[in-house]
User: Fold this.
Amino acid sequence: MAASNDQVPRLALLIDADNISSKYLSTILSEVPKHGIATYRRIYGDFTDPQAAGWRTKLLDNAITPVQQFSNVKSHKPGESAGKNATDSTLIIDAMDILYAGKVDGFIIVSSDSDFTRLAQRLRESGMHVVGMGRNQTSVSFRRACTTFVNIELLASREEAADAPEPDTNDTSNAPAELTLKDVERVVAGIVRNNDGKGEDTPLGAVGNGLHNRYPDFDVRTFGYTKLSKMIGDMKRFEIVENGGIHYVSFADTRDLQSRVTAFVRERLSKEPSKTMQLSALANEVYQAFPNFSLKDAGYAQFSKFADSIKGVKVVGANRQQARLVK
Assistant:
C-alpha cells in the first residue's frame, strides 16, 4: 500500500520501551513528521517495572498507547529485563496485525534490538517503508534491514549541542505545558530545515500539516491569529513567498545577520591577549549580542563548525574547545 503524491504517508510508530530510554522521546516525536503521520502510536514493555517510571509520566501527555507485557519467563542474561522476549513477541505480533489490516503505508520501529531484523525485512517484502530508530549500539543487520535508519543517540546529541546556548529550550513533549509560540517556531524551523536539506521548497500547507502532526491541539486562534500565514509572517525568523498561487515558507534572509556575527567573533577574539577563547564562552557572548541568531538556520549543528567556517578563525585544542584568531 503506497500513499499518493498528495497524501501524507500513514505510519505505525512502535516503540520498544525495554530497549529505548524515555529521554529520547522528544527526539523520536520530532523525527516522525519527516516521514509521515503516526496513526498508530504504541509502546511495549512492562510498565510495572520501576525502570519504566520515566515512560509512565510521558505517555498520556503524548497520546502514546502503552501495551503492557508482563514477564512470561525470568531472564538470566546480565542486563536483560525479565520481560524482554515477551515484549519483542508482542510488538512483532501487533506489527503483523497492523500490516494485514492494510491501513498504513509504513512503520517506524524504535529499538536497538537486532531481534527485529527479520520483522523489518518481512515488512519491506510487503511493500512497506520501514524507518528504524535506535542508538549507536544498534546492530548492522537491523540498520540495513530498514528502508531508513535514524541514529537517535547521535541526533539527540546534535540537537542538544545546537540548542544548548540558545535561550528557552523547553521540551514540551517531556512534561505537561501550554504550547508557546517558541514551540511553534521550533517545529516550523525543523520542517523548513528538513526540506532545505533535500533541496525542496516548503509549502505553507506542509507546515500546517507538520504542526498538527506534532501538536494535534495546535490552533492559530490560540495565539490571536485567524491565519497561519499571518502568524508565521510575524515571526522574524521566516518569510512567506507566493509563487504560482502557492505560498512557501523559508528562512528570512539572514546574510546580513551572519556577517555581523562573524565580524563580532573576529573582533571579540582580537581583544584577547592570546587571541583565543573557550568556544562555550564565545558562543554565550554571541547569543547575548545576537538573540535572533540561529546556529541551525545558518546550516550548522555545532558552534565549533560555525566558528571554523569564519575566515581568520580556527578551532583548536585537543577536544576542539577553543577558537583562535589566525592570520
Observations:
- Residues 255-325 form one domain.
